[in-house]
Amino acid sequence: MRNKKVLLSAALVVSAVSSALAQGNGLAGINDATNMVTSYFDPGTKLIYAIGAVVGLIGGIKVYNKFSSGDPDTSKTAASWFGACIFLIVSATVLRSFFL
What we know:
Order of helices and strands: HHH
Pfam families: DUF4134
Structural class: mainly alpha
Number of helices: 3
Protein name: DUF4134 domain-containing protein
Strand content: under 5%
Helix content: over 70%
Organism: Alistipes onderdonkii
Number of domains: 2
Signal peptide: 1-22
Keywords: Membrane, Signal, Transmembrane, Transmembrane helix
């Protein structure tokens, strides 16, 4: 009976120590994942800015074509394209400031 108690106590101590040591590895993994995710924000922000520039150029060309053809809906089209560019820039900035 005494041997069973000693064996059970030893098993509990070993399991407590192993779970305590395993927590450090989990914390290191979370820190590594955080560093990996935050390292993607600079290239991602630059990519969003580049997409915003391309959208702005396409929008400018479309607005110019509508303006040249005398379409009365030019101001609405210009506002929508300009709004899309502003949204891309603001969303990239907000995401960057929120996560970093």
